[in-house]
Write a structure and sequence with these properties.
22-stranded parallel β-sheet; 0% helix; 35 strands; mainly beta; globular; single chain; eleven-stranded parallel β-sheet
Length: 343
Amino acid sequence: ISVSAFLLNRSSDLRFSLVYRGAFKTKFHLNGVNLTSADSAAIDIECGKRIDLILEEGTENSFTDPSTRVNDNEDYGGGKAAFYCKGHMEISGGGSLTITGNYKHALATKEYLFLKRTVGNITIAKSVADGIHCGEYFKMNGGALVLKNIGGDGIQVETKDKDKTEEELNGQFVMNGGSINLTMSAPSTKGIRLDDDAYTELVDGKMVEHAATVVPEMYINDGTITVNLTTKALGAKAIASDGNFTIGTSETSPTINIDLYADWDTNEERATGLKATSTLLIAGGNTVVNAIGDNARGVRAYKLRATGGNLTVTNTGEDSQGIKLDNIYITEGGSVKGKFKYK
């Protein structure tokens, strides 16, 4: 099928799946669709072009997949998520969308995912693996995104090798507005995860490491993020970047609230609120991290720089830490409150 637009109209609960293999940019209008698949992804878009997903104003839409697959083939998108897109997806419209991933991810795109300013409510009601899993970058200008009952990471962005993508952006998590509300409890997971493109592979019986070609950049420019991480999950992170991490600007004021409840009783890695492998820059807004429990950690970064805004970190519990740095803390404005510890 090769078409420019689909209109999925109002329906009662439908028990089938939709697979689209067209070769052109396509618009999908959701107008009150409740779709439950019996054997694969509810929606599988096997098109590598731009896909515009429009949530029609005032409508409620939902997609659900089963806990098993008839054909479990990782090369086939239907095996990756309840809602899968091979290309890049841009979501708009004031309606709502609820996705339940009973097999693996809830929503997955091979390339970037963009939530536009007009987006209404998107709820990841459940995912066995990641709630949202995308490649290249994640950009959010508006909407209310809720993720709960997550078995893997809440939102994971995989950076591509810089020679393997044509996109101008690559390796970014950018939030310019809207809200994200995450509830996490699974072990060794991350609420929001931005990876570099480093990888290892087996060559002639030996593991070969390939260094990263891109330094990821996380920008929380505006909007609101709330993460509640209640877990004995050692190594869990609320928000983590394999590169730099910037919160706010001189003209914007995002709000980030992280409540981390850890119960550490082994020698596993610490649960952490904010983590940046490189520099954490506080440039505006208000960020509060409460790290509660034994061995809990509020912030972990190579270097911390503050030019504006406020960062407040509290930690309670045996061997807990407030702000752990490998390098230096540079203050050029703003306010940073917390107990510092250097490597």
